[in-house]
């Protein structure tokens, strides 16, 4: 997946 | 991880525990929209497909498992155990009006054109409007049990807290911003404003949650 901020959020 | 993000996630966690507590203690799912809960399951499943391929942290993994499992359990309680207490005739929001546009938006706005990434975008857009059947039901009945309003307040607080979290991350993580998450998040938070107004002016003053006729 990409490393956008939202991707490590829930 | 920052304090806003942590408090936001804990608020999200609390909202689900409040909802479970409400259903178990009143032995009823009166006032709860099955459609909204079903949309949340859709949101979690489509967003967390990367759970076994992209390891973020134990915290992240545990929360994801909890959100999927607990929301599925709520669906089970509503459809099986406390089925007679759920009245589909007031839960009438047409979810296809949400699913269609969100699918379209996800096809238009995503970070990569892959199944996983388009579904991730879809889940972000869908989460932003998933509360609408619940708010619509509230609007229709014009009142709510206090505990149901606490559930909604915790859920709204979770969304509101993600905003300072993004601002904080913007300044601490070299100007990173996530346009999809932020846009959808702002919309989602805005949907709670009416509710928050009544919650703060009535429920927290000890009055019943009632909408003007």
Automatic annotation (TrEMBL), chain B:
A single GO CC term, please? endoplasmic reticulum membrane
Top-rank taxon of the source lineage equals: Eukaryota
Its record classes its membrane topology as: Multi-pass membrane protein
- List the InterPro entries: ER_ret_rcpt (IPR000133)
This chain is encoded by the gene named: CsMn42
What's a Gene Ontology MF term here?
ER retention sequence binding
Query: What name does UniProt use for this protein?
Result: ER lumen protein-retaining receptor
Similarity comment: Belongs to the ERD2 family.
KW Membrane (keyword) present: yes
Q: Name one GO biological process term.
A: protein retention in ER lumen
UniProt-annotated location(s): Endoplasmic reticulum membrane
Write the record's keywords in alphabetical order, separated by commas: Endoplasmic reticulum, ER-Golgi transport, Membrane, Protein transport, Receptor, Transmembrane, Transmembrane helix, Transport
Q: What Pfam families does its record include?
A: ER_lumen_recept
Q: Where are the transmembrane segments?
A: 55-76, 97-113, 119-138, 150-168, 180-200
**UniProt feature coiled coil, ranges:** none
């Amino acid at each position: 997946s990409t490393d956008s901020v939202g991707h490590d959020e829930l | 991880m920052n304090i806003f993000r942590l408090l936001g996630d804990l608020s999200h966690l609390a909202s689900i525990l409040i909802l479970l507590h409400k259903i178990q203690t009143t032995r009823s799912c009166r006032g709860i929209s099955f459609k909204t809960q079903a949309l949340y399951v859709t949101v979690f499943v489509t967003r967390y497909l990367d759970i076994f391929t992209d390891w973020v942290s134990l915290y992240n993994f545990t929360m994801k498992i909890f959100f999927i499992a607990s929301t599925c359990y709520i669906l089970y309680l509503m459809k099986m155990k406390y089925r007679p207490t759920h009245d589909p005739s007031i839960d009438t929001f047409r979810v296809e009006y949400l699913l269609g546009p969100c699918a379209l938006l996800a096809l238009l706005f995503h970070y990569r054109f892959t199944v996983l990434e388009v579904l991730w975008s879809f889940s972000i857009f869908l989460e932003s409007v998933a509360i609408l059947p619940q708010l619509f039901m509230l609007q229709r009945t014009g009142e709510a049990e206090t505990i149901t309003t606490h559930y909604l307040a915790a859920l709204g607080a979770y969304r509101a807290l993600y905003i300072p979290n993004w601002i904080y991350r913007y300044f601490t993580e070299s100007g990173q911003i996530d346009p999809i998450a932020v846009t959808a998040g702002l919309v989602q938070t805005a949907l709670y404003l009416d509710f928050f107004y009544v919650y703060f002016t009535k429920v927290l003053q000890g009055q019943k949650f009632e909408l003007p006729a």
